[in-house]
Amino acid sequence: MFSCEDLRAELSHILDEDVAPEMREKIRHHLSECRLCTVLVDSTRKTITILTDTGSFELPDSLSDRLTAMIMEKVQEETKK
Amino acid sequence: MPLLLDVLPLPSEVLAPFAPLLDVLLGEGGTLDRALRESILLAAAASAGAPIASRDLSSGGPAELLLAFGRKLGRAPAAVGAPDVEALQRAGFGDEEILETTVAAACGRAVGLLIRARTPRAGTAAAADGDSARTGEERKGPYLRSVEKTPAEFPPFARLKERYGFVPRLYRAQTLAPEALEAQARIVERLLFEETALRRDQKQLVVLAVSAANRDTYGATLHARTLQMGGVEAEKADRIAADPAEAGLPEAERALLEAARRAGVGPGELDPPDLQALLGGGWTAAQVDEAIAVAALAGLLAALQAGLGVPPDFRPRRDFLANPPKGLNLSGPSARPTPDEVRSPARSEDPDGPAVAAAKAGDMNAFETLVRKHQGRVYRTVRGITGNTEDAQDGAQAVFLKVFRKLGDFQGQSLFSTWLHKIAVNEGLERLRSRRPLESLDEADEDSFPPRSFDAWVEDPETRLARDETRRIVEEALARLPARYRAALLLRDIQQLSGAEAAAALGIPLATLKTHLLRGRLQLREALSGFFAAEARPMRG
């Protein structure tokens, strides 16, 4: 019987959509019956989407010109050495 | 739309599927002058291969920039990227104006493709010089501002959600032009989702194949998912997108998709379709008309995506820009490098090649151009690996100083951006090790991290909080993760490298990367659950 443990072992493949063909039906069947695993897959997918989407760690616009100026200053100093 | 019909060599019923959008674009209202919108539309139609003379309305004024942008979108969406949009923004155009230009050009592209498909021997002109496909290395969009709206408060979103199952980002990025958005929702509903002369699944095969032929990864990803929701296997969708001729389809469908691909891409890539042969192959005139209209819609959506820069709604199964489908004539100026050239790209193929050469010769302005273009990605890489903003600022400076010193050694064996990214990853790793010497990136994980939170999430978590707030929450959660998980998430889910690329950049085995990635995703899920579970009441402020 395909268990919740088995599903978690496949989770990486499920999220990256590279599940082996022979596993697909088992996973589909398990998800149709198990609410907890369905929640797990759904919310982890949404986590990835949010992560991809929200521009985490982006350089703030307000910092952009200042950073360029700081870098160019360092580089100019280098040329004088 | 009296003016437009005067110049188009086309019976009006051919344009009928696109009438809702034409009415909005050629009507009063909006931010741009109505006549300018019409000129952009016609210019894009001509660039997409329609043998019409587009009126030369301005001579070098600022509107000329919008027209040039529209022509490029009409001709070769795959060549349009962030720098084109940034140039308009620098020239002082507002996001509303750029959005209207994009929508008018996209609609013009559809009109142009429709005309080209019906004009014998039209549009075999080669693509214009300099239309090289963008590299995917540049800044990710969306390029323009948009307003968060929910399906409940905004009827076009309710329509789209009912059809697609969610509101695709392509539409969420257009809220500054609600009337045009409403018109698009109606067109999409009619052309992609209703059963008319063609069945719904046939229409969706057409839009998938044509999106891929346009090298529109966004559209191909979205429509493959729509097909999957209708019960089509992902692998079948992959095969159709890659090459409809080899997807094992019945002969009539294969011929329909082939003709649609010819109808839905711009001049220079494929010759126009032979519609008579299709009619002889068992399809009715109404079905052929519809397939061509759906192909034109795919061409429209590809131009919209190119102008807006929205990232795919799902992780793409294939990057069609880097890895185009079979059967396209990509020789000429927009050619992709052959595999040999990919291994050792000549300097002329590196988009940064000219600036790198100038910087090597001592041109400081050229070096500054490279800094401005790439500092965002460098900053993000160092910040993501170290989890720390101070490190990111100092680290970005150190990275470019190293680049400046080593520039003489850079021989163009890889793209400049790839070389730079490696230096940035190493800078991040060095800083991490100097601050937290005990933290190792390839540490084995014996903990199995059982999930704890099992509350269902809201359907569309990204609309629950303002984008800035979501970002703050995500960044704080990421900063608390072990560095090895955060680095995996950064390279794989934020910067979207492949697993092999990410593992190579971090110097760890692929299997280890995969483990860290899964742990990271699951821990982040726990951290975000409190905000996005349906039962949770998010803290505001």
Q: Which structural class do you get from the secondary structure elements of chain A?
A: mainly alpha
Count, helices of chain A: 4
Overall number of strands of chain A: 0
Q: What oligomerization state is this entry in?
A: heterodimer
What amount of the residues of chain A lies in strands? Answer: under 5%
State the helical fraction of chain B. 55-70%
The N- and C-terminal alpha carbons of chain A lie at a distance of 71 Å
Largest sheet of chain B: none
- Name given to the CATH homologous superfamily of the domain at 353-536 in chain B: PhyR, sigma-like (SL) domain
Task: Indicate the topology.
The complex is a heterodimer of chains A (81) and B (541).
Chain A: H1 4-15, H2 21-33, H3 35-53, H4 61-80
Helix pairs in contact in A: 1-3
Chain B: H1 2-7, H2 12-15, H3 19-25, H4 34-47, H5 63-75, H6 82-90, H7 95-117, H8 155-164, H9 169-172, H10 178-193, H11 200-213, H12 217-229, H13 234-242, H14 251-264, H15 275-280, H16 285-308, H17 339-343, H18 353-360, H19 364-386, H20 389-406, H21 416-435, H22 467-480, H23 483-494, H24 499-506, H25 510-532
List descriptors.
heterodimer, A: 81 residues, mainly alpha, 4 helices, 0% strand, B: 541 residues, AhpD-like, Butyryl-CoA Dehydrogenase, subunit A, domain 3
Describe this structure in words.
The complex is a heterodimer of chains A (81) and B (541). Chain A is mostly helical and 81 residues long. Chain A is 79% helix and 0% strand. Chain A has one domain. Chain A contains four helices and no strands. The N and C termini of chain A lie far apart (71 Å). Among the domains of chain B are: 110 residues, AhpD-like; 184 residues, Butyryl-CoA Dehydrogenase, subunit A, domain 3, CATH 1.20.140. About 5% of the residues of chain B have low confidence. Chains A and B meet through α1, α3 and α4 of A and α19, α20, α22, α23 and α25 of B.
